[in-house]
TrEMBL record:
Heme binds at C421. It comes from the Eukaryota. This is Cytochrome P450. PROSITE patterns: CYTOCHROME_P450. Its main location: endoplasmic reticulum. The keyword Disulfide bond does not apply. GO terms for cellular component: endoplasmic reticulum membrane. One of its GO terms (molecular function) is iron ion binding. May be involved in the metabolism of insect hormones and in the breakdown of synthetic insecticides. It comes from Chrysodeixis includens (Soybean looper). The keyword Membrane applies. Belongs to the cytochrome P450 family. Its cofactor is heme. It is a peripheral membrane protein.
Length: 483
C-alpha cells in the first residue's frame, strides 16, 4: 500500500533515468568504487536540474525525491528534521550522537551542545588553530620543491589536532605522528557505510553479518572507540580539577568540559553518551574541514591569478610580519573567505544528506510528499543549479560570493534550518586559518599539462564515501615564497 502511494508521488515528478523492478536505480550504485558512486549521484543532480528542481530515485523499493531547488529545500529543511532510516548504518557506528539521533533525543542534545559554539568560545580557539597550522606549515617542508605531492595527510592531521585540542582539551599530536590507526579506521568505516547505504542487497543484517565487510566494520569501530574511550577516561579524571582551576580565569573551556557541565556535571551524560557526543564532534569536525581546506588548496593551484589576489590580501593584513594569525585578522580576509565558499560550492565535503518525511507536506513547487518518503537533499546539485548560479555555474569564480546570494538556501554546504551544522563558523575559522598559513609561506601550483592533459582545466575526480573526496588525494606542488 505504501509503495503504491510512493509510486503515485513519483508519477508527478520527471525522471528519465531507467529504473528496474525490485532494484530501482540501485544497479547504478553496484560498484565498490566511491568515484562511480559519486558519478551516479551527480547524474541524479543533473537530472533534477533538467526537470526544474526535482527527480526520483528508487533505492530498491525505497523511494527518494532528489531536490536541487532552494525554494523547496528551504521548506523541507524547516519541516522535516528526522534523518532518513538509511542513516541507521551510520548510527550503527556512532550510536545516538546528535548528528544522526532521532528528533526527541536530538532536541535535547542540540540544546546542550549549541551554546558551546558561542562567538566568545570560538574566538578563544583561534590561537590553537594558528599554532596547529604553523606546525602544519612546518611539516609541509617535507614536500616543498618535490613536485606533485598529496597535502591530505597534512591537512587531515591539522584538523585532528585542532579538534581534539579545542573540543576535548587533549593534545594528540597527530601531525607529528601521522600514522594514526584511528584516522585510517575512520576513513575505511566511512567507505563501508557509504557502500551499504546505496546497495539495498546489503541492508538485511542477516546478509551483512555473513560478509567480510561486517568483520572489517566491527574492527574499525573497535579502533575508533578505543581511541575516544581512552581520551574520555583520562579527561574524566582531571576535568573536575581543571574546571575548578579555570573558574574565574580567562582560560579556554573545552567543548567536553562545557557539555559535561551543561548536562549536569557528574549526574549528566553517562560515559557512553559522552563518548557518542565526543565521537560526533571529532568525526563531524575533522574530515569535513580537512576536505574543505584540501579542495581549496587544489583550487588555488589551478587558479594562480586568484591565488595571487588572495596573497595580496594577506600582505595587506600581515605586511611583512611573520606574526601568528589572530581572531581579529579573520574577518579581514574577505577574498579568502569567498575562495573557500566558492570551493565548498563546487566541492561540498558532504554532497548529499537524507531526511525523512514524517507528515504529509506540499512543497512550494506543488508536489505533495507522503509520510515515509525519503528526501535526498542534493547539495552538490543545488550548488550547480544554473537558475541560481548562472550559466557559468560549473566555473570557479569566487567573486560571486562578494555579491548577495539569489536565495538563502542556494548555498548549503553546512545544510540549512534548525538542524544545520553546528560547527559552521568553527569550520570556516579553522579552514581560513589553515589556508592563510599555507599561502603566507608557499606558492601552490600544478604543471600545466600532465600526460597531455590540461590539469588546471580538468575537474577533479571525486568519490562519495559519506564525505566527498578527491581520488588523487589532493595533489599539488608547493614552492617556498621568497619574501
Ligand atoms: C567544512 C566543514 C564542515 C561541513 C561541510 C559540515 C557539514 C555538515 C552537514 C552537511 C551536516 C548535516 C546537517 C543536516 O543533516 O542537515 C552537519 C552537521 C553537524 N556538524 Fe558539521 N560540517 C563541517 C564542520 C563541522 C565542525 C568543524 C564541527 C564541530 C566542531 C561540526 C559539527 C556538526 C554537528 C554537531 C552536526 C549535527 C547538527 C545537528 O544534527 O543538530 N561540523 N555538518
Amino acid at each position: 500500500r505504501y509503495t503504491d502511494r510512493f509510486t503515485e508521488v513519483s508519477r508527478k515528478i520527471k525522471c528519465s533515468i531507467k529504473s528496474y523492478p525490485v532494484l530501482g536505480h540501485a544497479y547504478l550504485f553496484a560498484s565498490r568504487d566511491g568515484a562511480s558512486r559519486m558519478r551516479s549521484f551527480e547524474m541524479f543532480g543533473r537530472e533534477a536540474i533538467k526537470n526544474g528542481g526535482l527527480t526520483n530515485l528508487w533505492m530498491g523499493g525505497k523511494y527518494y525525491v532528489a531536490v536541487v531547488d532552494p525554494v523547496d529545500l528551504e521548506f523541507i529543511m524547516k519541516t522535516s528534521l528526522e534523518k532518513d532510516e538509511v542513516m541507521r548504518f551510520a548510527r550503527n557506528f556512532i550510536g545516538n550522537g546528535i548528528i544522526f539521533a532521532p528528533v526527541p533525543i536530538w532536541r535535547l542534545r542540540r540544546k546542550i551542545l549549541a551554546p558551546t559554539f558561542s562567538p566568545k568560545n570560538l574566538n578563544s580557539f583561534v590561537p590553537i588553530f594558528a599554532h596547529q597550522s604553523s606546525v602544519m606549515a612546518h611539516q609541509l617542508q617535507d614536500i616543498e620543491g618535490k613536485g606533485r605531492c598529496s597535502v591530505w595527510k597534512y591537512l587531515n592531521t591539522y584538523a585532528m589536532d585542532s579538534v581534539c585540542e579545542t573540543a576535548l582539551g587533549v593534545k594528540v599530536n597527530a601531525q607529528e605522528n601521522s600514522d594514526q590507526p584511528f584516522m585510517k579506521a575512520f576513513e575505511d568505516i566511512c567507505s563501508l557505510i557509504a557502500m551499504r547505504m546505496v546497495q539495498p542487497w546489503l541492508y538485511p543484517n542477516a546478509v551483512y553479518r555473513l560478509l567480510p565487510y561486517n568483520t572489517d566494520f566491527e574492527e574499525y569501530k573497535r579502533i575508533v572507540f578505543d581511541f575516544i574511550g581512552k581520551i574520555i577516561k583520562s579527561k574524566r579524571k582531571t576535568m573536575k580539577e581543571d574546571t575548578e582551576q579555570k573558574k574565574g580565569t580567562n582560560d579556554i573551556r573545552t567543548f567536553l568540559e562545557l557539555i559535561t557541565e551543561a548536562s549536569g556535571g557528574d549526574r549528566g551524560y553517562s560515559d557512553e553518551e559522552l563518548q557518542e557526543e565526543t565521537l560526533v564532534l571529532v568525526m563531524a569536525g575533522t574530515d569535513t574541514s580537512a576536505v574543505g581546506a584540501s579542495f581549496t588548496v587544489c583550487m588555488l593551484a589551478r587558479h594562480p591569478d586568484i591565488q595571487e589576489r588572495a596573497y595580496e590580501e594577506l600582505k595587506e593584513v600581515f605586511g611583512d610580519s611573520n606574526r601568528p594569525l589572530t581572531s581579529e585578522d579573520l574577518p579581514r580576509l574577505k577574498y579568502l573567505d569567498a575562495i573557500i565558499r566558492e570551493t565548498l560550492r563546487l566541492y561540498p565535503p558532504v554532497p548529499i544528506i537524507v531526511r525523512s518525511v514524517e507528515k504529509e507536506i506540499t512543497l512550494p513547487s506543488g508536489v505533495t510528499l507522503v509520510p515515509g518518503c525519503g528526501v535526498l537533499v542534493h547539495i552538490w546539485g543545488t550548488h550547480r543549479n544554473p537558475r541560481y548560479w548562472g550559466d557559468d555555474a560549473d566555473q570557479f569564480r569566487p567573486e560571486r560570493f562578494l555579491e548577495p546570494l539569489k536565495h538563502p538556501a542556494a548555498f548549503i554546504p553546512f545544510s540549512f534550518g534548525p538542524r544545520n551544522c553546528l560547527g559552521y563558523q568553527y569550520a570556516m575559522m579553522s579552514m581560513k586559518t589553515a589556508v592563510a598559513t599555507i599561502l603566507r609561506k608557499y606558492r601552490i601550483s600544478l604543471p600545466g599539462k600532465l600526460d597531455g592533459v590540461d590539469v588546471a582545466n580538468t575537474p577533479l575526480t571525486v568519490s562519495f564515501d559519506v564525505m566527498m573526496k578527491d581520488v588523487d588525494r589532493f595533489t599539488v606542488q608547493l614552492e617556498k615564497r621568497i619574501k
